[in-house]
Structures are given as C-alpha cells and as structure tokens.
Amino acid sequence: MPTLILHHYPMSPFSQKIRSMLGYAGLEWESALTREMPPRPILEKLAGGYRKIPVAQIGADVFCDSRIIAEEIALLSGKPELALANCSPATQAYVAKVDLEIFFDCIIGGGSRKLQKKMREAMSLPDIIRFFWDRINLGRTAKVKTAGFRGMRERVLLHVADVEQRLQADFLGGDRPDHSDFSTWHSLWFIRDLGESRMINPYPKVMAWMDRMKAFGEGSRREISGEQALVTARAATPRAIPDELRKDALIGHKVSIVPADYARLPTKGILVGASANRWIVAREEKDVGTVHVHFPRDGFFLKEI
Asked: Half-sphere exposure of residue 102, counting CA atoms within 13 Å on the CB side?
C-alpha cells in the first residue's frame, strides 16, 4: 500500500479533519510539518501557487483540498463513505456550507483566550504578526461574506443547535461516520479541543459525538522533513492517467487553476486528466521532476493560458 504524506501544521482545522479521517481509516502515514503561512518553499515546488493547508502527497502525485485528499483516503482504506462524491446530494450541500461559511464563523466567532495563549506558545511574535497580516490580506480577496464577531458567534451557536438535532444516531451519517461528520468535526474541534471553549458544553449529543470522533485518533504517524517529501517525489513517477480521463478538450493545454473562495492564487501546468470531480495538472520542477497535482472541480476555476 502506498504511503500518504500529509503536509500540515498542528493548529490547522482542515488538517485535523484529515488527521481524524486517517485515524478512522486506521492508516499509517507520514507527517511533514510546514509553516502556518507562506512562504512554504517545499509546497511551492510540489503544488505551485496553491497555498491552502493541508496538502497530501503519494509519491509524485500531489492532492490539494480536503475533498480530494478524502477520496484518496477512501481508496486506500476501502471506506467509500469518506469520499464526498459517494454521499447524497443533501449531504454534499451541507458539507459545502459547513466547510466554508460555518468554518469561518467558528474560526473567528469561536476564539478564546486559551487559544490565543496556545498561539503565543507555538509561534514567535514576528510569526504571529505575519500570520494575522497574512489572514487579513486573505480576507480582502475572499468571496466569503462575514457578519462581524457577534454575528459569527450567534451563527456558531445556531450551527451547534442544528448538529444537536441532526444527531439521531451515533454519527450524522448513521451508525458510522461519513464525510459530513469530519467536516463538522474539524471546526468544532478548533473551538472545544484546541481553544478549550465551553460554548458547546450545553449540547450533550454534540459533546458525546465529539468524544466519539476524538476517539478515532490520528492513525499511525511518522514524522519526516519537507526535504524527505521532495526526495520521495523526485524518486517516483506520477501514476498513469486512465484513458477515460483524457477526453477533455483542454487535455495537453497549459492551464491555470485557482480556488473560487479564498487564497485565490493560481497553480499553472499542463492539464493531463479530467473527470466529473477532478482536474489533474502536470508540473515540472527542476529539483523534483514531473508531479501531477490533483484538484476538485467543485470550488475551483480552470482556464487556458
């Protein structure tokens, strides 16, 4: 079984979404820690301009966005419920809202003094200043509408009350978790487990569900350096593109792919594969060779350049 490398940092909610999926899936994986904000020279060589975290890697294939990473985990573990494409349209619509609007509400409206303390302990003062300046600049170009701190906090509480109502079984998807559980979990993890806030405590079903999600752990993890991840990519060949993914009119053309919501910086390369859910772009780096970068179609724009 190929080893998945996860490029992430400890306080990243979307990284926690994937770490918890790896725990549920019972997979062994390699952890390549990166900075909380650019510059990230290792990831620039692998994923080009893409700047969101986490990024996953299997050999010379690089996976951007938690939805694509979840598909890879589903394939590696034989747990199809982790792939969003295998969920119902209603679940997909719920995840789209939770991973974007609710995520921002939780990050801003669910902050706490203990979270601030952890940031001060984990980062130097110059890096904290750079981090907030980076996030301010992200907000200026983001397509996500915000409601101010008070409005966001109110929306977080409405969201938690909604989750309380949805929990008619052990998990949102029934007797076992699906993608929606992990999308809901990572933002609430940021509030309760990382930030040690008590704002979720009045919701007993949510608290019990969070304990079940936490119990999955994070799988079997081995730390490697970013340089080791580059060595892995350099020594590998991207996996073959099936013929059915080579029918798009732009195959073989130079393209640019950019997120539609925030962190809207492009990755450029040659389109080598396209399916109903995914784009695959080939990039050449002199220190790495050829890598194939995988993106979801939903939430991204592609154009010929």
From this structure: 26
